[in-house]
Amino acid sequence: DPATGRTVAHCAAASGDPRTLRAVLAFDQDYAMSKSTDSAGQSLLHSAVETEAAAVSPSAQRHLVVRRLLRLDGKAGQPLMQDADGRTPVDLAVLSGAGPALAVLLGALVTEGKSSEVLSEVRDLEGRGLLHSACLTGRADTVLQLVAMGLSPWQPDAHGLPAVCYAAAAKSPDALHALLNAGTVGGLGLLAARVAEDGATLAHLAAHANRPAALRLLAAAGLPVLTAVDFDGWSPLQLAIAAGAWDAAEALVDEAASQVEAAIAAEADPTVECPAAARLPDMRTPDGRSLLHLAVTAGNCGLVIGILSIARLLSPPASGQSSPPLHPTHVPDPLGWTPLHVTLFAGRANLARLLLDISPVTALSVSRTADGLTCLHLAVSGCCLGHGSVDAIQLCQEFWPWQAVTTDNEGAMPIHLASACGCEAAVSALLSTCGVFQSLHLTAQGDSPLHLAGSETVARLLSSRMLMKDRIQRNLAGRTPSEEARARGRSEALVELLRELELEALVDADGKQPANQPTNQPANQPANQPANQPTNQPTNQP
Description:
Elements: H1 8-15, H2 18-34, H3 44-49, H4 51-56, H5 62-70, H6 89-96, H7 99-111, H8 116-120, H9 130-137, H10 140-148, H11 163-169, H12 174-182, H13 188-191, H14 202-208, H15 212-220, H16 236-243, H17 246-265, H18 270-273, H19 275-278, H20 291-298, H21 301-314, H22 339-345, H23 349-358, H24 375-385, H25 390-399, H26 414-421, H27 424-431, H28 435-440, H29 449-452, H30 456-463, H31 481-487, H32 492-510
């Protein structure tokens, strides 16, 4: 084939049929040998064991084709010859899962006196060895074949990762299961060791790759899958939640729950029998966030319920109480944010209602952040930033209506935040409760919500709830709303609108036209008479 350089002999080898190959070689073996590599550098032996050929033409006699090619001279029958991508026929046999064909290739290497040291040095262009590739495919029979040849599961690749790491992160847990059962990976101390440059263990790799079956195998082998931490202080469960590996995270939570339940069923103290599982609700990331913080940030209701269930098992409510004394929902991070705060800021009203149903409203549930922000402040901020929702605002108003008139450390109510962002939906929701009082309240800088208005729609909404005299109120800097808007760099259209509202307020306050208009014009002057035209009527005439 001029395009690929493949000959009929390559196609015969890929077919997996020894009779076809025998017929082609019998016709002109010398020509076939002279063209034994194609444009990709693959020999006839490569073609016989490549992944696509094994999938398209499954053959129980492919190993006979391999045995026939190994008897050829030259490049056609070399098991360790590399193609243009650095792959040998042995590599391709490992990746394709051609067990009998791989056995023939390995047997040929043994016959040639190739030791396990030589095989362990075989690398593809990505730096992976034969056992690394076998573990990556998850084929237990291939893994055991290579281990029987003397290859070590702890032999590192070009990046320092041993083959057992590939088995832990593989889609199929069969390779890891085979290594654990064969006893070739050493004791528990070796299994629990850090295997990556960042200090990750096998459990970290399985969790990050979202491999729940591998995590269960490691836990059954005695590996501390719940408490192992890398150099950054992250556990496998924290890493799984942060990476969005939900199956792995749920498997770890289920493992912790089963340990706690087993200890309680045996009438034992869970903190003594399974201290790792008992510490799970209180586990913190290096930045001080709990597992519940991570779960609500991700918005995974299943994980939230699982973590809270473990907390309830460990700290059952006292008599007459419906929740534990200190519920994980109310535990703050270093910035004072509780999981409930995070949920409302993200606008997840349904998840917030779930938290409130599991943990009834207490004094702790209305705690503030370090900046003095209430739940309603955070729900409004999230809505203004675009990732929140009006539903979260309405939920806060349902549970804590007084937070609508509560100020933060800067003296700002939630409506000040919504007004400054120009969020019409948030302002409308807030004005539905205590609208007049909110629209008149001043911040520590003396700004009313109208001073902070970020859009024309918000300015109209606020002005409709304000007295005329309050439209022209000045802040501590001595500026009216229109002057403050200009100072803040708002749009010219907003500045003009606020100026019009102020002029309306001036007319209403004086009962006449503004001071820069003449005042001696009689009320019954014809409409077509210019305003500045003199009249002969006395100025004191009623």
